[in-house]
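Input record (one chain):
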Amino acid sequence: MEIAVIIPSKNGITHLKECLPTVVKAARKAPFPVHITVVDDNSTDKTMEILSPLFPEVVFLRNSKKGASSARNWGVKNTPCDWICFLDNDVFLDEHFFNTVQKYLKQDVFCVACAGYTAYPKISGALEQNDGIKLLEWKRGFLRFTGNIYNKELPLQPEYLSWGVQGSYFFCNRNKFDRLCGFDEIFEPYMLEETDMVYRGLKRGWKIVYAPDTKPLHKCGGTIDSKKNKYTQFLSKRNRVLFVWKNITSKSLFISHIFWLLLRPNFKVLKSIWKFLPDIRNRRAIEIKEQMLTDKELLKQAKYFRKKCMSAMLQKTLKGEI
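The corresponding structure, as predicted from the sequence alone:
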């Protein structure tokens, strides 16, 4: 087995100087070949020129296009692997990271979602979890995919499934990645590209396994501060609409989406996606043809698991375990 670590980076030299040594150290400890590739997305901070001599074990590529999706696709295309580990440039790994995740990398698995923690917890030295099992929810005309079930809330069972991944750290089966043609570059330059890809896999009946014992640390907003960056906020709104128009094939959910869109129209967003309509129609036709599970079936699965976790938490409370 070979793993390709793909790290897209735009003007991220400061983050890479801190985080890349932890990735290299974890790769050295791995029981299989791990190839690390940093894809420089046309940076102006001389990332490649400065860091390439400092990290001879890392391959540095320049993205031939612009954006996170194309950067990741370009990195995968140029790196041999059976599995792909996608990391952001502001993620720290512990030295046993790849050893820990090895048991989840099975042929029938599409993606492995990691349990993620903040790199700077409120209590020094503590593990403050900020990413767990991702859930799906339909709310106000859009699919919500940021809900988390954390480790302390999990019922005891041999395997945990997730309905999404945290794009900062997750694994993807190379064969299935290629079958999906990778990340859809319609979401360039960034935002929701990994959500779109894993949702397409879910609708094909492929499973995402959650790895509760992984512990990547995220600087959280080190690369993109979505709460302050107005362009990121615009892209979030635009790409959420693109996601629904491309992927949501349930008629009732789509009608709900249109209702909320008309109720709160965003003309700047609608104007920006008008040029994508022909591509969206083509992509939507493919998704309808390939889907094995419906939108409502996936929402029902996630809702059932949430209820199961709530029941497990109640039992733990009654027993005095928490």
